[in-house]
Amino acid sequence: MLIDVSHSGDRTTLDAIELSPRPIAVTHSNCRALNDHPRLKTDEAIRALAAKGGVMGISGVRMFVKGDEPTTIEHIVDHIDHVVKLAGIEHVGIGSDADLLGYDRMPAELNRQLRAGYKGSYAFRERIDTDGFDSPKKIYNLVDALIRRGYGDADIGLILGGNFRRLLAATWK
Questions:
Q1: Cα dist. 47→31, 52, 55, 62, 145 in Å?
Q2: Which of 92, 138, 163, 168 is the 20 to 30 Å CA partner of 24?
Q3: Distance between CA atoms of residues 32 and 23, nearest Å
Q4: Rounded to an integer, what distance in angstroms lies between the CA atom of residue 100 and that of residue 46?
Q5: What integer pLDDT is reported at residue 93 of this predicted model?
Q6: What is the pLDDT of residues 92-127, one digit of tens each?
Q7: For residues 162 and 89, what is the distance between their CA atoms, to the nearest angstrom?
Q8: How far is Cα 8 from Cα 113, in angstroms, rounded to an integer?
């Protein structure tokens, strides 16, 4: 079983990392150092996750990416950069947390139900999807943004799935 602490609080996240006999995941969250949202992970947690061999998947959910507008795919890459600087390229991936069309194109009633299911601290804004990461071409757009930041093919391969593949192989024995 792969343990995922994406929706866990700070103490539970650190406890799970410490107590797990194998690496764990944060499959879809972002860096609190870049956006002070209670759902995001602290630098302490990101470092501990990496020290244990875990992987953090960066989410494209708008309110996790940035607390104000504009919120673009470049801000998603800021979170990737932050994890890379803190923990290394081997510990970051993508946790898009949405299907190809994203949340903003959901039927209105489903969107309303989704928003109603979360606490006010989630701080939903009018749009949920991040600009540039809001269509079936979102991974192509992300790769273009990573290339603009200087990431090479090998590192992009790790970010797009190689790191999670390694984590799952280490976990599912």
A1: 11, 9, 10, 24, 25
A2: 138
A3: 21
A4: 27
A5: 98
A6: 999 988 878 889 999 999 999 999 999 888 899 999
A7: 10
A8: 22
